[in-house]
Amino acid sequence: MFELLNISPQALFGQLLIGLINGSFYALLSLGLAVIFGMLNIINFSHGAQYMMGAFAAFLLLELTGLNYWAALIIAPIIVGATGVIIERLFLQWLYKLDHLYGLLLTFGLALIIEGLFRNYFGSAGLPYRVPDELTGGHNLGFMFLPNYRAWVIVASLTVCFATWFVIERTRLGAYLRAATENPTLVRAFGINVPRMITLTYGFGVALAAFAGVMAAPIYNVSPQMGSELIIVVFAVVVIGGMGSIMGAIVTGFGLGIVEGLTKYFFPEASNTVIFVIMALVLLVRPAGLFGRAR
Amino acid sequence: MKRRMKHLLGYAAIAALAACGTAQAQTTVKIGVLSDMSSLYSDIGGPGSVAAAKLAIADFTVQNKDIKVELISADHQNKADVGSSVANQWYDVDKVDMIIDTPNSGVALAVSQIAATKNKIFIVSGAAASDLTGPKCNANTIHWTYDTWMLANGTGSALVKTGGDSWFFLTSDYAFGHALERDTMAAVEKAGGKVLGKVRHPINSNDFSSFLLQAQASKAKVIGLANAGGDTINSIKQGAEFGIVKGGQKFAGLLVFASDVNALGLATAQGLTLTETWYWDANDANRAFTKRWQVERPGKFPTMVQAGVYSGVLHYLKAVAELKSGADGKAVVAKMKATPTDDPLFGKGEIRADGRKIHDAYLFEVKAPSESKYPGDFYKLRATIPAAEAFRPLKEGGCPLVSG
Q1: What domains sit in chain A, N to C, each tagged with a CATH number?
Q2: Rg for chain B (alpha carbons), in Å?
Q3: B chain contacts of residue A218, beta-carbon cutoff 8 Å
Q4: What is the distance in angstroms between the Cα of A185 and the nearest Cα belonging to chain B?
Q5: Does an H or E element contain A59, and which?
């Protein structure tokens, strides 16, 4: 804590950049959650487990088939998204008309089962996964050393987040989706296959989680607990941003990553509680979240 | 009718006497393995500790039929309150006589106090804080496998002697991290090094980039990782990303287990210097134990914590067999301290008055991928630290049980 006395702007910018990078993971994950909650009204507690499955899928693709990171970025989300589709068809479709709590309980139970199975099979210490060769190394920016992989993380998640927001808010498909959330019966009357859209939307949200998992595999320990550590924070992010608001999830994800990064610099011991403190304050002032609409 | 009753009573009395006779010949004890079964330390202790305990019980009862041992286990989830309530429940309701393992110093310190209050026994194999045999020592607790002082003086002094004379600490913000940081700071300064700074992170953190940046900025020659399990793995993995080692700084893995090296992969972990008290591949006896242990835990390798559980259970059962009762915690611990230890895994050693078990420590270096010839071939031996030097001198601990 010697730095507290002489705060150097250079170190600060370094921490802000790190915060932005962490924020991109939060943004990707909370985007998936927001899409699922906004469109399906399901609080998807198994999001962390699906993020973990994405990382493990990347590891297994490398181990068993030799497919590298770039292939895994596309294939792993598809595989995990497919399991999401199965879960939706088997379990979730019965819960849409019920209280939110049932969806939360079901997905929470699924998360525990998935995590337990993976831990039983793979152990908890974790598995090695290396940064792809094209992205190793980094650049000295003067105020910090920025690994190339982390720069890629920011770029990739900004692209995916923006693309998702664009599809949902600005395209016809997105318009159907939003309409189906508000009044599914009317939309079905127009001949649009609403159940299929909902299933694919859940699969897409899960695929987003798996995509974040593949991106995390080279830098975070690929272990069965990796999702449960992150999911609580991501939920806080979504609540602050406003459940169901796509733009809110993205902006809040990046913003809170920066806040957490600053806390790690000034008061590291509090770094894993500061987001919850903010959540408590936001809920006091704006119960629907910063960008949310009261439902 | 009366005669029949008399006969029946007679038979009943004889039967009761016979039953009493066999009950007196058998001593029953119950052992509880309290460990992290599901989180970041579960490969270090966890189900592997239960497997080791089972092996120890099997090995002992094969030759000592007059002792009956029950084994149960539970998950403390790295929470002191959960660990405490399990310990209370076990000691009070479930008639457990001895609790063993408990990685996570916060939990271990709590359970140690409970064992003392209830006059039961607590053998710590998994936790590290040297306070367990220091200011917080008691007559019911034995600290078995390793502790922060041993790690600090093993790895810390070795690194300072080879040129790492400026340090920056990355510390896990709870009892274990604080103890390890304190002991290593003392060892570094004693060996002539300087401590340039430290930063404390919450346990079970995902991302260390922010802390590593601060470590890089300090320009210390050595970054001391006063954390364990998943935290250490993430620190080293992300350190490689940020070019810490390429930039000329070294990582000191103050507490690294074979399971961590497995998770990192030799390519990332190579060159790491660490201190342990047991390695599965060190000799034939260890390898034989590993083979038996792997029947229950295929694909994994036992850590020193799990070997410590085997060794601790064996010595405990020896003491109970001699006393013919496991009921009085203080008496059994006194017996364990009075008897020199000898088992296939740790060889000959002893338990001191402060509850500290003494045995040799080893300085290892992680092999490069090209040097590793088979799965599990992780370490090369750099030095052996004899038992008398490896652990904190008896008088320096501040333990109230030590006179003078």
Answers
A1: 12-285 (1.10.3470)
A2: 23
A3: 241
A4: 44
A5: helix A47-60
